[in-house]
Amino acid sequence: MPAFHSLTARQLRAVVDYLRSLQGKAEGRVLPGDPKRGKGIFFGKGDCSACHTISGQGGFLGPDLTEHGATSSADAIRDEIVRAPRVPPIGYRTAVLTTESGEHMEGLVRNEDNFSVQLQTKDGSFHFFKKTDLRSFDRQDGSLMPADYRNRLSEGELNDLASYLMTTPSPNKAAPPRKKVDDYE
Ligand code: HEC
Predict the structure, then answer these.
(1) Count of other CB atoms within 10 angstroms of residue 32
(2) CA nearest ligand 1 atom 13, residue
(3) How many CB atoms are located within 10 Å of the residue 158 CB?
(4) Partner of 76 for a Cys bridge, out of 35, 72, 167, 182, CB 3.0 to 4.6 A?
(5) Residue having the nearest C-alpha atom to atom 30 of ligand 1
């Protein structure tokens, strides 16, 4: 096997994604629980759907999870659900600010550069500010994602949830085309 030094990191990722797409969905993977019960927990007891969307249903404060489990192991999914403390990636960090007119606002920093910031409040609306117009702008630590699921959900319920995420989108439907990766940089 030759070493493929000529491939960029991005091209390698595209190759790996392609190989994974050939592996198919949950086929050949053992589900640790019951995906139907997991769906019930996602939209019910766990309240995941308050923030996450699966196949078009749910909230927008967290990432869309439709594809999250398609290529992950049950262990990795469970670990991710109970991970604490959480350090949110860019786009999911939160801040509290005071506008020029004295209004307080809290939300997700969806976009930011040296001069401006775009905040999305929990009602879904976007607010754009020039930083020089703000009276205060305070970043907050931590994630909107609750960090206590290890206590709120049993082992069995976490296994059901992982099984649900491993089987979305429904294996009966054709998988949506994968995002196109621009190979030539
Ligand atoms: C109050 C909002 C909220 C609730 C409720 C919530 N999450 Fe999250 N979740 C988030 C946010 C925001 C992120 C992204 C930041 C982070 O990783 O902490 C996230 C991240 C995740 C991730 C990682 C996704 C990725 O692409 O890295 C998974 C998996 C996840 N949540 C699963 C769940 C499950 C399952 C539940 C229900 C048991 C749940 N979440 C409940 C807000 C929420």
Answers:
(1) 19
(2) 62
(3) 24
(4) 72
(5) 81
